[in-house]
Amino acid sequence: MPDSTLDSLHYADFAPHINTKFQVQLNDNATMEIELIRVEEKPSSTRQEQFALTFRAPSNAPPQQWLYQIQHEQLGSGKLFLVPIEREGDALIYEAVFNRRLKVD
Questions:
Q1: What is the DSSP string of 5-37?
Q2: Which of 66, 77, 96, 103 is least crowded, fewest Cβ atoms below 10 Å from its Cβ?
């Protein structure tokens, strides 16, 4: 699955990868490592999929929401809109929320 784009994956794709590391491209010369700590399925329907990913980042991570380029060894890469939602000890917690229409055949 390395050539997939993260933004097109589903809840079931992310769920097995809790506690794994992702690389975030901050700029041309800097990256940071974040850890997927929670994958939460939200109420969905036959036409709409909803779930959220929660990541733990270092305390010095950028405290602004942004569309970040992210890479995972098994899931591939893509852009995710990460929103800082809280500080937890020496970490900054980000969330990415997916709320999208499903393709109906």
A1: BGGG--HHHHGGGTT-EEEEE-SSS-EEEEEEE
A2: 103
The model's pTM is: 0.90
pLDDT in tens, 59-95: 999 999 999 999 999 999 999 999 999 999 999 999 9
Locate 6 and state its tokens: 């993260």
Query: Which domain covers residue 22, as residue numbers?
Result: 6-100
Q: Which long-range contacts (CB under 8 A, 24 or more apart) does 65-73 make?
A: 68/24, 68/25, 68/26, 69/24, 69/25, 70/6, 70/22, 70/23, 70/24, 70/25, 70/34, 71/22, 71/23, 71/25, 72/6, 72/17, 72/20, 72/21, 72/22, 72/23, 73/2, 73/20, 73/21
For residue 7 the two structure tokens come to: 């933004």
Q: Which of 101, 103, 61 is nearest to 84 (CA)?
A: 61
Total domains in the fold of the chain: 1
